[in-house]
Amino acid sequence: MSTEIADVATTARSIRNPVLTGFHPDPSILRVGDDYYLATSTFEWYPGVRVHHSRDLVHWRAVGGIITDRRLLDLRGCGDSNGVWAPDLTYHDGLFHLVYSDVASFASGYWDPQNYLVTAPDISGPWSDPVKLHSHGFDAALFHDTDGSTWLLSMSADWRPGRDRFGGIEIQRYDRERRQLVGEARIIFHGTAAGLTEGPHLYRRDGWYWLVTAEGGTSWEHQVTVARSRHLFGPYLADPSGPLLTSAGRPDLRLQKAGHGCLVQTQRGDWYLAHLVARPYSPLGRCVLGRETAIQRVDWPAGQWPQIAGGVPADTIAAPDLPAHPWPDEPATDHFDSPRLAACWSTLRRPAGPEWLDLEARPSHLRIHGGQSPVGKQTPSLVGRRVGAERCALETVVEFDPVDHRQLAGLTAYYNTLNWHYLYLTRADDGRAVLELLSCDQGRRTAHPELTVDVGDAVRVGLRARFDGPVVRFGYDLGAGWRELPVDLDATILSDEHAALVVDGEPAAWGFTGAFLGLWVQDLGGDGVYADFDEATYRED
Q: Among 359, 268, 299, which residue's Cα sits nearest to residue 34?
């Protein structure tokens, strides 16, 4: 495509939000030359810190994740919605810098957040061994000042009863040569009346330091707040006109929960904000797709406060004046021909490795060795992909020869250890190979024995899970065509809102991820069982 044609195509294009659909929260956006990168939270899923790449802010492609092994982070035993929170991606002195928080708890006001830093010469790595930073609070981020100094920001957690748990935004110098924090940590911003101040990013422009934070919590009252100061350590004054962006008080908007933003400037000087959103299935209803990433255009005249049209998230905005750069479409079907999992897949609590995943033992098949039960948090065997649309489906073909009821393999619609639907092959007490359906809602399991299917002599069994708005339906194919199980299952239990639990005013569980469709295998007796999956097809309607 010629430059002239590309420029014309760009002029006619728009950014359609969300740009990253499904579970992609807490975006950190970065430009290096002509390349844009978006890093998002992954919580209990590997690879940690999912990364997407763009050349025009319109078209994005998944390039995998950064935390691919336990050397960088061990998620064994990680609780639901714990793990990797709010990564920050920057570039300085020829190196990518990634800061990420490993949050171990949120019970009784404690978070136990350990922050780490890794660096690499290229976004694809290799990444350095992690530098252990402080545990003062989560949502840590780096700021590289124009004088060559580097600073670590984070929210400052306060566990003490009766105190504000979000104690403000703190800053501390990071010595890049010594690879350690130096000097004292200082609180530079206590936030606005919206409260719950977190997610800091700092910028220097026009003689000002500009502090961008998330406030109001991660749900309907979420917002992006901007404050500024002439001095690094403040005082910082929040924009008197209010938040840069929020959807609070506007249940009519398609994009809700707008907040947790990060700014980027294009090659031609325009500013954009990447931020978190969610799309409830009904006004202020449940968000099965989880928290997603959107982009807004920012009007930022020199020396003045940045502004977004209307201060609300728009479904569609004008694309930047950059050459269009579409990527090849992701194939609908993964034939498992590669020696590595495709970038669309994630694994639960343990990285993809030969001790439980094998793409080479049998050509064009994914072999999954069975793991723990659905509630196990050390060695589960779940390979999943994000649900990106209200109406979508995943189909696969499995070969599995269970010996008894302790061996299961199948297809799941999954949120966390407490909320899932599961169609699986197993062995009945009378020796028959059967398909069974099991659901779990806040830890309460419901079996459907009336829907049990005798698979007979079928060696290859097709399985399908379909999201149809608020409903999940399962189907199977024993060689004579697809048949659907006659039951509509509640898809909305696979949502952030349903997953959240508050007991006596304290959070017992949060819902920070989103729905997955996945290939799941259990070996509850530790007998060495595995299942072979021959291709998987994901489609959105």
A: 268
Q: What is the pTM of this model?
A: 0.95
Contact 21, 344 (CB under 8 A): no
**Both tokens assigned to 312:** 């609300």
Query: CB of 125 within 8 A of CB of 66?
Result: yes
Q: Which two tokens stand for residue 149?
A: 């100094």
Residues 75, 227: Cα–Cα separation, whole Å: 35
Q: 493 in helix, strand or coil?
A: helix
SS3 category, 25: coil
- What's the start-to-end Cα distance of the chain, in Å? 30
Tokens of 479: 């060689």
Q: Do 413 and 472 form a contact (C-beta atoms < 8 A)?
A: yes
Are 117 and 98 in contact, with CB atoms under 8 Å apart? yes
Contacts of 128 (CB under 8 A, 6+ apart): 118, 119, 120
pLDDT along the chain (541 residues), means of 10: 40 86 98 98 98 98 96 97 97 97 88 96 97 97 97 96 94 97 98 97 97 96 98 98 98 98 97 98 96 98 96 97 95 96 97 97 97 97 98 98 97 98 98 98 97 96 98 97 98 96 76 97 98 97 91
* Residues whose CB falls within 8 Å of the CB of residue 437, separated by 6 or more in sequence, listed in order: 421, 422, 423, 447, 448, 451, 452, 474, 485, 487
Bond before 331 cis per omega within 30 degrees? no
Phi, psi for 170 (deg, rounded to 5):
-115, 160
Residues 6+ apart with CB under 8 A from 301: none
Sort 147 into a burial class: Cβ within 10 Å, 0-12 / 13-18 / 19+: exposed
From residue 96, alpha-carbon distances to 9, 39, 67, 119, 124 in Å are: 31, 12, 14, 5, 10
Distance, in Å, from the CA atom of 222 to the CA atom of 258, rounded to the nearest integer, reads 6
The set of catalytic residues is 26, 198
User: Phi, psi at residue 381, to the nearest 5°?
Assistant: -120, 80
Alpha-carbon distances, residue 201 vs 311, 459, 493 (angstroms): 19, 54, 34
Query: In what side-by-side order are the strands of the sheet with 83-92?
Result: 83-92, 95-103, 113-120, 131-132
For tokens 């670590």, the residue is 152
